[in-house]
Design brief:
Layout: E1 2-3, E2 7-19, E3 22-31, H1 45-49, E4 64-71, E5 77-90, H2 92-98, H3 102-107, E6 116-127, H4 132-148, H5 154-163, E7 165-166, H6 192-196, H7 203-208, E8 209-212, E9 220-223, H8 236-244, H9 246-257, E10 261-266, H10 269-283, E11 291-293, E12 310-315, E13 328-332, E14 337-339, H11 353-365, H12 368-371, H13 386-404, E15 412-416, E16 422-425, H14 427-433, H15 440-447, H16 449-458, E17 462-463, H17 467-474, H18 476-482, H19 486-504, H20 520-524, H21 537-553, E18 564-565, H22 572-579, H23 587-601, H24 605-618, H25 622-634, E19 641-643, H26 645-660, H27 670-678, E20 681-686, E21 689-692, H28 706-731, E22 737-739, E23 745-747, H29 750-760, H30 766-795, H31 830-833, H32 846-866, H33 871-899, E24 921-931, E25 950-957, E26 960-967, E27 977-982, E28 986-992, E29 1005-1010, E30 1014-1020, H34 1026-1040, H35 1049-1052, H36 1070-1091, H37 1110-1117, H38 1125-1129, H39 1136-1147, H40 1149-1157, E31 1174-1177, E32 1193-1196, H41 1201-1208, E33 1218-1222, E34 1229-1233, H42 1242-1245, H43 1257-1274, H44 1277-1282, H45 1300-1306, H46 1309-1318, ...
Parallel strand pairs: 10-12, 10-13, 11-12, 19-20, 34-37, 35-36, 35-37
Antiparallel strand pairs: 1-7, 2-3, 2-6, 4-5, 5-6, 8-9, 13-14, 15-16, 17-18, 20-21, 22-23, 24-25, 24-30, 25-26, 26-27, 28-29, 29-30, 31-32, 33-34, 38-39, 38-44, 39-40, 40-41, 42-43, 43-44
Helix pairs in contact: 4-5, 5-21, 8-9, 8-10, 8-13, 11-13, 13-19, 23-24, 23-25, 24-26, 25-27, 28-30, 30-32, 30-33, 32-33, 46-47, 46-50, 48-49, 50-51, 51-52, 51-54, 54-55
Length: 1944
């Protein structure tokens, strides 16, 4: 029984005491005045009565009621029901003023002073029971009695309330007095009807039905719950879901369980309480144990910043003060929102539970949802009543918890039964069996306080049970079967809801409520009521005393608590197996494990060795590991199994492999099962010395995890205690097994046994009880000693003298040093690996002992305290532990000594690698293991054989680093694994420590990463001494970064002598070399001697200085302005030796190319025709103008050499603009230069408009610069055509019409391109300043004329101009808009007259870097225009490449989703960089194609500039797409123009710090992307690009060494003879090598090569169109990278020799399995044409004929095939032989698809939409859609309608009859010369067609044809006039064309 109310309190407004202007409440009266012993009076009630603060108000408020919850120090909850009403009082303020207290009055805010104010008064009931409605009624009654002045005294009502006693749960068997003890009360007070209506009913009704009356003519029924363990929720849960919605409440639910802070906001106090109550109710069976304050007073808001979790409710009034809470989840009940801060991560329920819970909840809350789409929804589908719905929701959560915690009782360890049960939960096992170890939510819940309470409350096996116990024990099977069927789940939920409802409302029908409410009049009238009276405390106390006395005299009420044994439910193991969550292990795998173990113990070692790899793989699975422990257990006799060396070795390997995949939690109990075995298996080492397995399996995290040892200890203790009671019971002849329901014998579980013991406990005698307690305690104690021993076994290393620190958690808080496992012979040599890196420098051996002792002590303290071991025993343990450890160390020393004497293990023999001619070994092979990295192919995880890990040797040669060996897996043992990369490509080397499942213990490892996309993770074998490994690293480093470029392999090749780092051999080109050096030096000396006095400061350019260049650099920059012409050119005095140099220079590739392009020749200057626009200048032949440029440069004819020297100074590195290519059709030129020098710092401080007295040097140079640009523009034919003189008036737009048809169409595309490149920003800040020195800059404003195409030659435009504003960055959007042909408003506000302004394109576009365009001057007449773009910085390329390497070749496997290949590839941004470069290149191609010249002027002019310029030439000029042309392109743009190969490739010690930056590789990748899109346009194959990419990094050839021609001449490399006479095999140039190889085999040739003439390629550049280059991803483990061709031929010849030696008797299989990462696919599976050519050569060789070169054969086939095609009437099948079938989705060239809309001709560019892969012909160029003609067929569907039509030719051309074919499938009209003609003469695209109309006969039309036979076909591009034979035929044609359109 319990009191309904503990205290009754009256709280009022404290008029006398105001703090800081705020009102206070005070307790006016409380009853009883003395605290109850069992529940002290809670403090601070007055705060909770008015949570928002005590205030006086001018109007009476309605009475309010809410329940606050206070928690006392014993974490008991007190429910404070507050009933507040308002009483009038005279304004104390006015009184004060009257009284003259003026000073105090001043403090109050001056406002309207009301004469009458109302103060709050609260009636509070404090109770430990939560009966909200009963309290509301009782307090309402008291208020009614007061207001309506009823006859009943208030004291009686309150006395009755305080003496009311009700049963806590299920009622109690009360005798005849059913009501609150009223018989002791004077009869006059009790009502007559009271006893009459309360006849005692049936007994069970009284159990939970209490009728109470307070003696004021009222009565109410209180229904107490049947079981008070279940929470009572009323309808609060349903309300909570209505307010917040399903998902939000689930978030709150998960947040509460995972211990987050939750704050509710509402303007209603009662709703806050209800919401908190509802949240707690759905958490059942877990109980919330943190701060719980449903209503928090405003004064206590600082509680919200507490660090602990809480559930708190706060009035919305204080919302603003909750805004800055960073880690609090805020649920707004009124707004229905839940706000989760960014820093808070809520773990949600595991799937599929979350989904199923949501479904169930929505079926409860919104049952109509399911049928809302049905045509005939059921009639009665309404949600249940709120109270029922509430229980259904709770039932869903009960069902959820039953699923979450199913089988939890099987993971309870009972470690003491008497005197009190002590129970621990084995979390790891629970998670492991549920396969939820990774689940964040469950982990947090099991670690939380609520679950700890759950275990201590529900753990005991003998107690009262409730609904949840029944659910989790008996309904698991049902839940599992129904979980996938929502309707069955709902039925179950409804059943549970019924039980919950029944528990809360045992008698829902009984409702005898009669409670008076205040009358309306008393509520409405506002007359001055009497204040609430002071109560007579004596009268109330009298009631209380009577009740207490009666309780004492009546017999104590004892409710027999029904205790029973708690059922455990089905074991967990079954559950998971049926779900299929167990890792699938086939029976075959388990059989392999069993067989292997049998072989080992039967001493069949060969058989065991064969099975071993398979076993190690099988042990990845859990069941196989369990199987292993079971099998090994059977071979242990009397706790010991002595093995011989080999057996021991195998068993240890298997144990290590098993433990390796165990997590530190050991959730599957594998380590626990192995623990007894590692102390059982042993081998004899010598006289009386035995080595146990534990000394070889210590390297696992699990042994250093405290939780593991605790769980193990508890499980052992449980077993022993169980055995203890089994024995005593057996003594009493009790059976220790029970009959199961099915009649099977079943072992009694420990919990069942404990329940039985607890039941019997009260019946035992005192002596028996103490005896049992002692027995249990000694059991625990003996186990503790046993575990101290076990732990010392596994924690003390074999060699304790060398200090291997115990890793991880408590042992030596040091990072985990991952070492591998020890076995037989080298068990001793473990010691060597623990060097000083392990954390302690020179520690004594005792350190290990101390840390182990500390660890064991901590363990013993924890488990002994928890399991109640006495202090004496604990002290004894502490003294024992150091002795145990010391004793164990001594035995280990002997074992360690003996283990060193074991014979070594046999190892596979080392294989020698094949070397290139001239390649020599620097270090002979060292035995290593090649370990798998993050690539899964070779490990066998993606199918295929496990090639890695492999065992072999690593070789260091002068050129490469080579690993060669065989896979460790015996099943693949006959394969040879080779991995190698050139030393020059090594980018990163780091030490790693390696863990292997090998026999050997591996000391240390290296991870070597190469920029050829290779990664080697090697672990040195223990036979490799550590100093040898160190010397390997040093040699590697020396070879990687030689002192000088002459130390690289390309120079040292063939020069013997190991590691000649700086060879000083005499060079064969010595004369030429010294000559060129002397020439340069003499020139320098002359110049510097003359002008040494006038040196001017020059900014030093650090980055381009190499060690031997610095003193020359100074001179080069400091040459002054007025240098004499003759000194500079030295032309008059070239000696004969110099002429030799000059002739060499002329031979250089560039000159041949310049001649091909018609850019000038090197004939004698006198005979040179002056009308050539450009000339070859020799100004730089001594490399004095610009050292990184070639000797001969193309400059405008009008520029003299002396100017060049001056101009060069404006540009960085002196790289001034030079012409490098000219467009053959438009004659536009492509120039390249570096960016301009940034302005000096001083000029920033000068005012931009300050007049300069003297023309400064900057002025003169910028004038020179302008002249130079003007000269380039003047040399363009389009410029000279449009105007003979450079005046403004001659500037018309006629140059637009130079190639009318093509330019007109092509022009507007560029704008869109430009916008893409510029990034579409309207005004780009910090770009080119127009008017850098303050002149007025003139800007043209442009708009698109709204005129038809006919009015193209409209009046010439006038010029608008604006003042250069003070802002220097005046880049206007008109750059882009002019090109785009969009209107831009006139900047000076003038009229926007379309005819007044003309579209105008610049003659020269300068592509410049945004960041650098600060100092140039804009051309005022718009003859050139700057396009500012953002280029990728070299640093960006470097970082991007690093990330790309990590994405393509990860160093370790990862399962994280954000570490997947595609995610890493995206993060690397490599594709974005390619996209940028290609985009700019396509823009330049477009500009050149429209007749504008382009100057690329980016960064220093040797990185991005080179990329763009080379790509532009490749796209525009088909010559560069041949093998020779590409070579020439690379030699010209990359080598001659000084791309810094050595610097960017970090090839020497000097450039080591700058790191590897693959600018050239990026260019090759771009070429690869273009090659993929246009496979028929390139003569070379993809292999050619990969070959160059590999050897550009390999340093095998001298081609890609050094930074410029100057450097190459200095070293005498530039003009070497073709190959070395002494060593004919060694090619010094990669090009010679390619030529040589190309003669032998067609590897570099692309069979699909069939170019179109003058084809300009326009590739798609979107990232989605780019592919990852397979060069980055492929690898060939059979013989290493396939780019060193000699190795291949050598290996093949060796293979043939060995094959001949082999026994030829056996039949040879024709089958060959091909493994993607092992075999070289092109070798094993060559393409058809290569195969045929090879077969042809072989046959010719067999027949003894001299075989043709492959190229001749191929050309012959091609020509014959062409002629055949022409002879045949139908195209033969062979014509498609060349066009390989994958062309269907490839493009010849990207057609540009232009749509011309009516208004203002806004033109879209095909490049904008990725979908536009259509090829449309552009007039004036070869049609790109002729691609179809090669696949043409004469089937009818391709020729929907055909016949002869006359077609009118272009202007002044006659009408001609043509054979027209209408093709509906391709929507085109093709025409041919005649019906037989196969070559299509033209195509009219119907997609562009606008109308087909009847025409009129025009001039020159065919005679005798009726008028109606003419018709016109209008397309967006032009009008076609056609004529049929007669009118009917014409009508037929028009209809057909029209219908084909409508079909489309």
């Amino acid at each position: 029984m319990a009191r309904l109310a503990d205290y009754f309190v009256v709280v009022g407004y404290d008029l006398d005491n105001r703090v800081e202007g705020e009102g206070q409440g005070r307790i006016l009266q409380r009853f009883p005045e003395k605290d109850w012993e069992d529940s002290p009076f809670p403090q601070g009630i007055e705060l909770f009565c008015q949570p928002s603060g005590w205030q006086l108000v001018p109007e009476r408020q309605p009475a309010s009621f809410f329940v606050a919850v206070l928690t006392d120090i014993n974490s008991e909850r007190h429910y404070c029901a507050c009933f507040t009403f308002w009483e009038g009082l005279d304004n104390p303020q006015l009184k004060k003023v009257d009284a003259g207290d003026a000073d105090e009055a001043d403090e109050e805010p001056v406002g309207v002073q009301h004469a009458k104010l109302f103060a709050p008064k609260s009636l509070v009931v404090v109770s430990r029971l939560d009966y909200t409605e009963a309290f509301r009624n009782c307090l309402g009654l008291i208020y009614t009695v007061h207001v309506d002045g009823l006859s009943t005294p208030l004291e009686t009502v309150i006395g009755n309330l305080l003496t009311c006693v009700i049963p806590v749960a299920g009622g109690s068997q009360i005798d005849e007095s059913p009501v609150c003890s009223l018989d002791k009360v004077p009869q006059s007070l009790a009502c007559d009807w009271l006893l009459a209506c309360l006849q005692p009913g049936p007994e069970e009704r009284e159990d939970s039905l209490r009728t109470i009356t307070l003696g004021a003519g009222d009565r109410q029924v209180i229904q107490t719950p049947i079981n008070d363990a279940l929470p009572v929720s009323g309808s609060s849960v349903a309300q909570l879901f209505r307010q917040l919605g399903i998902v939000n409440v689930l978030y709150l639910f998960c947040a509460a369980l995972t211990e987050h802070k939750i704050l509710f906001l509402s303007s209603s106090y009662q709703r806050l309480t209800d919401a908190c109550r509802g949240l707690l109710a759905i958490m059942f069976p877990l109980k919330y144990s943190f701060t719980y304050v449903p209503i928090l007073p405003g004064k206590l808001l600082e509680v919200l910043s507490t660090p602990t979790p809480f559930i708190i409710g706060v009035n919305s009034f204080f919302r603003s003060e909750t805004q800055e809470l960073l880690d609090v989840i805020i649920a707004d009940l009124d707004g229905g929102t839940v706000t989760i801060p960014e820093c808070v991560h809520i773990s949600l329920l595991p799937e599929p539970l979350l989904q199923q819970t949501q479904t169930a909840l929505s079926m409860v809350l919104d049952p109509e949802l399911e049928f809302s789409d049905q045509a005939f929804p059921p009639q009665s589908m309404h949600a249940s009543a709120l109270k029922i719905q509430d229980k259904e929701i709770r039932a869903v959560f009960l069902w959820l918890f039953a699923r979450l915690f199913q089988g939890y009782r099987w993971c309870l360890h009972i470690i003491r039964i008497h005197p009190e049960p002590v129970i621990r939960f084995h979390k790891a096992a629970f998670l492991g069996q549920r396969s939820l170890t990774e689940d964040d939510f469950l982990m947090k819940v099991l670690d939380g306080m609520a679950f700890a309470g759950f275990v201590s409350e529900r753990g005991p096996p003998y107690r009262a049970t409730d609904l949840f116990d029944d659910l989790v024990a008996n309904q698991v099977e049902r839940i599992r079967q129904e979980e996938t069927c929502p309707h069955k789940v709902m039925n179950h939920v409804k059943e549970l809801a019924e039980q919950l409802f029944k528990n809360e409302n045992p008698y829902p029908t009984v409702a005898m409520h009669k409670v008076q409410r205040p009358s309306e009049t008393s509520q409405s009238t506002d007359q001055s009521r009497t204040p609430f009276p002071v109560l007579d405390d004596v009268a109330v106390q009298l009631f209380i005393d009577h009740a207490v006395a009666k309780l004492k005299s009546s017999p104590p009420v004892v409710k027999a608590e029904l205790k029973s044994m708690v059922p455990s439910g089905p074991p967990l193991g079954d559950i998971v197996d049926r779900n299929g969550n167990v890792m699938a292990n086939s029976a075959r795998r388990l059989e392999v494990v069993r067989n292997c173990i049998t072989y080992i113990f039967d001493n069949k070692m060969l058989e065991a060795k064969k099975l071993m790899p398979a076993v190690l793989r099988a042990l990845k699975g859990r069941t196989a590991r369990v199987c292993l422990t079971q099998e090994l257990n059977q071979h242990v006799l009397q706790n010991r199994a002595v093995l011989d060396d080999q057996q021991f070795d195998y068993i240890v390997r298997m144990m290590n492999c098993t433990l390796q995949d165990c997590s530190h939690m050991d959730e599957h109990g594998i380590a626990a099962a192995l623990l007894p075995l590692v102390t059982a298996f042993c081998r004899k080492l010598g006289a009386g010395i035995t080595q146990f397995a534990y000394s070889c399996v210590q390297e696992h995290m699990v042994w250093t995890t405290m939780q593991f040892w605790e769980a193990m200890f508890y499980s052992d203790v449980q077993n022993h205690i169980k055995a203890l009671y089994m024995e005593t019971d057996d003594g009493d002849q009790q059976s220790n097994s029970q009959q199961d329901d099915s009649g099977n014998r079943r072992e009694i579980s420990a919990l069942e046994l404990a329940a039985e013991q607890n039941r019997l406990w009260p019946t035992l005698t005192k002596e028996l009880q103490t005896e049992r307690v002692q027995k249990e305690e000694s059991t625990v104690f003996s186990q503790a000693i046993h575990y101290a021993n076990r732990m010392s076994y596994l924690l003390l290393p074999l060699d304790t003298s060398k200090n291997r620190l115990l890793r991880s958690s408590g042992l030596g808080d040091v990072e985990s040093v991952s070492n591998s496992y020890v076995t037989n012979s080298i068990a001793g040599s473990m010691a060597e690996s623990y060097d000083t890196e392990s954390g302690f420098e020179d520690a004594e051996s005792s350190d290990v002992a101390n840390s182990v002792v500390r660890f064991i002590n901590r363990f013993v303290d924890k488990v002994c305290n928890e399991s109640g071991v006495t202090n004496e025993h604990l002290k004894a343990l502490h003294t024992m532990i150091p002795d145990i450890v010391q004793m164990h160390i001594e035995t280990l020393d002997a074992v360690h000594r003996e283990s060193k004497r074991l014979p070594p293990i046999q190892k596979p023999k080392l294989l020698r690698p094949t070397l290139l001619p001239g390649e020599e070994l620097v270090m002979d092979g060292m035995r290593v293991h090649l370990i798998p990295d993050g690539r899964e192919e070779a490990t066998g995880q993606m199918g295929g054989p496990p090639l890695l890990p492999a065992e072999g040797a690593i070789f260091l040669t002068t050129y490469r680093l080579i690993f060669k060996g065989t896979p460790s897996d015996a099943l693949v043992g006959e394969q040879i694994v080779t991995r190698s990369f050139p030393i020059a490509s090594l980018t990163k080397e780091k030490r790693i420590s390696v863990t292997l499942t090998m026999d050997q213990f591996v000391q240390e490892g290296l991870q070597l990463r190469s920029c050829t996309f290779q990664l080697m993770k090697i672990a040195f074998d223990e036979e490799v001494a550590s100093d040898l490994a160190e010397s390997f690293r040093k040699h590697l480093h020396k070879l990687r970064f030689p002192q000088h470029v002459q130390g690289t392999f390309a120079f040292t090749v063939g020069q013997s002598g190991k590691l000649a780092l700086e060879p000083k051999t005499k060079d064969k080109n010595q004369s030429l070399k010294t000559l060129s050096k002397n020439l340069v030096k003499n020139a320098k000396r002359t110049i510097s001697r003359q002008y040494v006095g006038r040196k001017k400061e020059a900014p030093a350019t650090w980055e381009n200085r190499s060690s031997f260049q610095s003193e020359l650099d100074e001179d080069e920059i400091s040459v002054s302005e007025e240098v004499d012409q003759s000194v500079l050119t030295l032309s008059s005095t070239i000696r004969s030796s110099d002429r030799q140099t000059m002739s060499n220079v002329v031979e250089r590739a560039c000159c041949r190319d310049y001649q091909r392009l018609g850019l000038g020749t090197l004939s004698n200057s006198l005979t040179r025709s002056k009308n050539e626009p450009f000339r070859i200048s020799t100004a730089n032949r001594m490399y004095t103008v610009c050292r990184s440029y070639p000797g001969l440069l193309i400059v405008p004819q009008s520029i003299v050499d002396s100017t060049i020297q001056r101009i060069s100074r404006c540009y960085r590195q002196n790289r001034f603009p030079v012409v490098c290519w000219r467009h053959s059709r438009t004659k536009a030129v492509l120039l390249r230069s570096a960016g301009l020098h940034a302005k000096g710092v001083v000029s920033f401080f000068k005012s931009p408009n300050a007049p300069t007295a003297v023309p400064s040097q900057a002025d003169s140079t910028s004038l020179e610069q302008e002249k130079y640009l003007q000269a380039i523009i003047s040399s363009m034919p389009s410029y000279s055509e449009s105007t003979g003189r450079n005046t403004l008036s001659g500037f018309t737009s006629t140059h637009m019409n130079t190639s009318e048809s093509s330019d007109k169409l092509r022009q507007p595309k560029i704008g869109d391109l430009m916008k893409q490149v510029l990034g579409n920003k309207e005004d780009v800040p910090g770009t080119f300043s127009r008017g850098a020195l303050g002149q007025k800059a003139k800007v043209i404003s442009l708009s698109q004329p709204k005129v038809s195409g006919k009015a193209r030659n409209s009046p010439r435009g006038k010029w608008g101009s604006i003042r250069g504003s003070g802002r220097l960055s005046a880049y206007n959007p008109d750059i882009g808009t002019r090109l785009a042909g969009k209107e831009s408003p006139q900047p000076n506000g003038g009229p926007n007259d379309p005819l007044f302004l003309r579209q105008q394109k610049a003659y020269l576009y300068i592509i410049g870097d945004k960041a650098q365009l600060k100092g140039g001057k804009q051309d005022s007449f718009q003859q050139w225009e700057v396009i500012p773009i953002e280029v990728c910085d070299v640093r960006q390329v470097k970082n991007s490449f690093k990330k790309l390497m990590k994405a393509c070749v990860p160093s370790s496997q990862t399962t994280e989703p954000n570490m997947s290949f595609l995610r890493l590839l995206e993060d690397s941004e490599w594709m974005t960089l390619l996209h940028r470069v290609l985009q700019v290149s396509v823009l330049v191609v477009e500009l050149l194609d429209t007749g504008s010249s382009v100057m690329v002027s980016l960064e220093d002019g040797w990185d991005v500039t080179t990329q763009v310029v080379s790509l532009v030439q490749l796209l525009s000029d088909p010559y560069y797409r041949t093998i020779d042309g590409f070579r020439l392109l690379v030699e010209k743009e990359w080598l001659s123009f000084g791309h810094r190969f050595s610097h960017r490739g970090a090839q020497t010690l000097g450039s080591q710090s700058s790191g590897f930056t693959p600018v050239f590789l990026q260019f090759l990748d771009c070429v690869h992307q273009i090659h993929l899109q246009f496979p028929m346009e390139f003569e070379f194959s993809q292999y050619y690009l990969k070959f160059l990419a590999y050897h550009y990094m390999s340093n095998r050839f001298r081609t890609f060494l050094l930074d410029s021609d100057y450097d190459r001449i200095e070293l005498g490399v530039l003009y070497e003879e073709k190959s070395d006479r002494r060593n004919p095999h060694v090619c010094k140039s990669v090009w010679d090598y390619v030529d040589r190889l190309n003669k032998k085999a067609p590897v570099f040739y692309n069979y699909m090569y069939s170019p179109e003439d003058e084809e300009v390629l326009r590739p798609y550049t979107f990232i989605s169109n780019l592919k990852v280059w397979d060069f980055y991803l492929e690898e060939t483990l059979s013989d290493g990278p396939p780019y060193d061709w000699e190795l291949r031929s050598r290996q093949e010849s060796l293979a043939e020799e060995t094959a001949e030696k082999a026994d030829t008797g056996a039949p040879k299989s024709q089958r060959h399995s091909v493994w993607p990462c092992y075999d070289n696919l092109s070798k094993v599976m060559p393409d058809a044409i290569t195969k045929l050519l090879q077969d042809l050569q072989n046959l010719e060789a067999e027949l003894g004929q001299t075989s043709d070169k492959w190229k001749d054969t191929w050309d012959k086939i091609k020509t014959t095939q062409r002629t055949e095609t022409k002879l045949e009437s139908k195209p033969s099948f062979s014509s498609s032989l060349l066009m390989s079938s994958n062309l269907s989705h490839q493009r010849r060239s990207q057609g540009v698809y232009l749509q011309d809309s009516r208004v203002g001709s806004s033109i879209k560019l095909g490049l904008d939409c990725e979908a536009s892969a259509t090829s449309t012909p552009v007039a004036g160029r070869p049609s790109t859609s002729t691609l179809y003609s090669q696949f043409q067929s004469t089937e009818s569907e391709n020729r929907s309608f055909e016949g002869i039509l006359y077609k009118r030719g272009a202007l002044l051309k006659p009408w001609k009859p043509r054979w027209f074919v209408l093709d509906k499938t391709k929507h085109e009209l093709r025409y041919y010369d005649s019906r037989q003609d196969k070559d299509c003469k033209g195509v009219i695209e119907l997609s562009d067609m606008e109308s087909v109309t009847v025409g009129t006969p025009a001039m020159g039309a065919p005679k005798n044809v009726e008028e109606k036979a003419f018709f016109d076909l209008k397309t967006s591009k032009r009008m076609y006039n056609l004529c049929a034979q007669d009118s009917s035929n014409a009508q037929l044609w028009m209809d057909s064309i029209q219908s084909s359109l409508s079909d489309a």
